[in-house]
Write a structure and sequence with these properties.
Low-confidence stretches: 1-5, 22-27
Number of domains: 2
Shape: globular
Largest sheet: 8 strands, mixed, barrel
CATH topology of the largest domain: TIM Barrel
Strand order of the largest sheet: 6-7-9-10-11-12-13-14
Order of helices and strands: EEHEHEHEHHEEEHHEHHEHEHEHHEHEHE
Helix content: 25-40%
Length: 394
């Protein structure tokens, strides 16, 4: 194993408590570096370390922002949260890490001890070795891939009720444990296996939709559409055949497309998306409000939903600028006769604001985390809904 993979980054400002990390312990951590700012964390994150330890008591570093940076950079590292006396900070950090699909190895107490850190990371060292392309093929042939589903709540008069889910791929690796998309999708693409993974997601998601319908559960299914498939002229026919095989009406499916995919091969993209819409499949412009946002795409391409990126939602309603932009996106979407979905809803305050702003659907850990299909059925049986404060319920 390369020693570079056993680097540990410590996100902290207070150097005093770090003295104890020199204590004796297994030779798990070969080197460590302190990141005393988000910019320094960005600089140290490549190559990816074995672990990132975040000191939740660091006064000048926002732990949630540090987690978001790791997710945005797609750093496949173990996350260790160094807790102090504020349990609310720990709860917020754990919730954010889950929402961002980060791999949390566990929590440790201050002061940080090398022996404790090494013991915590020991079982993850084998999992830190780079994933080989052959492992992706084994995952497919060995039936190690699975889907989790995150509930989506829709407005129904004055209440918000569960009306659909988003399908999210997971890999139950026999040695590494449960892996998230950011840990293996790039490897799959490099190994030429992205098409096979996508075929699995579409087949499994459509099959599950048909199964739920046979049980009387009328849930819509949102599926992420890989940019490469948008430029595949044969995709539409294959997808519609999959729907027919499982008896799923096209109206029950929403395909989510990231904005960057719509910026290349525009005529081919428009042709493929137009055919899908003509068949009745809903199209959602995902991650709207960040990256390569283009208002002209809303006019040129046949989307019927805008999905506001979580990077904006996380600042609602506390940041005036973000709240103003979100309200403007909602109004714009409705003026264009589009539904508007907010993803990454984590707080009651954000939910209240988004409901008042007119969002049509929402999803996030405030309502439910991604879960296996059986848990979705149990959640439906118990009932999951929300009513904004002050709303009439009569």
């Amino acid at each position: 194993m390369e020693s570079g993979r056993n680097r540990v980054l410590i996100v902290a400002e207070d150097y005093q408590f770090l003295d104890t990390i020199y204590g004796a312990g297994p030779a798990i951590v070969h080197e460590w570096h302190v990141a005393d700012s988000l910019q320094r964390l960005r600089e140290l994150a490549d190559p990816a370390p074995l672990a990132v330890v975040i000191d939740l008591q660091a006064p000048g570093i926002d732990s949630v922002q540090a987690l978001e940076l790791l997710a945005n950079l797609q750093v496949a590292a173990q996350v260790v949260l160094l807790k102090g006396g504020d349990m609310r900070k720990l709860s917020n950090a754990l919730r954010a890490a889950t929402a961002l699909s980060l791999d949390v190895a566990g929590t440790l107490e201050r002061p940080l001890m090398m022996s404790d850190l090494s013991k915590l990371l020991a079982r993850h060292v084998a999992a830190s070795t780079p994933i080989a392309g052959e492992e992706i093929q084994q995952a497919i042939s060995g039936h190690e891939l699975l889907l989790h589903y995150q509930p989506i709540l829709a407005r129904q008069r004055n209440r918000w009720v569960m009306r659909g889910v988003e399908a999210l791929i997971r890999w139950q690796h026999p040695r590494r444990g449960l892996l998230y998309p950011g840990q293996f999708l790039k490897v799959a693409e490099s190994a030429g296996q992205l098409q096979a993974l996508t075929d699995f997601v579409f087949e499994a998601a459509v099959r599950q939709t048909g199964l739920w319908q046979s049980q009387g559960l009328e849930l819509t299914m949102a599926i992420n559409l890989a940019p490469t498939l948008v430029r595949d002229g044969g995709f539409v026919d294959r997808f519609m055949q999959t729907l027919r095989e499982h008896g799923v009406p096209p109206e029950h499916i929403t395909l989510e497309l990231i904005e960057a995919a719509s910026l290349k091969d525009r005529e081919l993209v428009r042709e493929v998306l137009s055919r899908l819409r003509l068949h009745g499949v809903a199209l959602s412009l995902d991650d709207f409000g960040t990256g390569y946002s283009s208002l002209t795409e809303l006019c040129r391409l046949p989307f019927n939903e805008i999905k506001i990126d979580r990077a904006l939602i996380q600042d609602v309603p506390n940041v005036r600028e973000a709240s103003t932009v979100v309200s403007a996106i909602v109004a714009l979407g409705h003026r264009l006769s589009m539904r508007v979905c907010a993803e990454g809803v984590e707080t009651h305050a954000a939910f209240e604001y988004l409901a008042e702003a007119g969002c049509d659907t929402m999803q996030g850990v405030l309502f439910a985390q991604p879960m296996p299909a059986g848990d979705v059925e149990q959640l439906l049986a118990r009932g999951v809904d929300r009513t904004p404060a002050g709303a009439a319920t009569g």
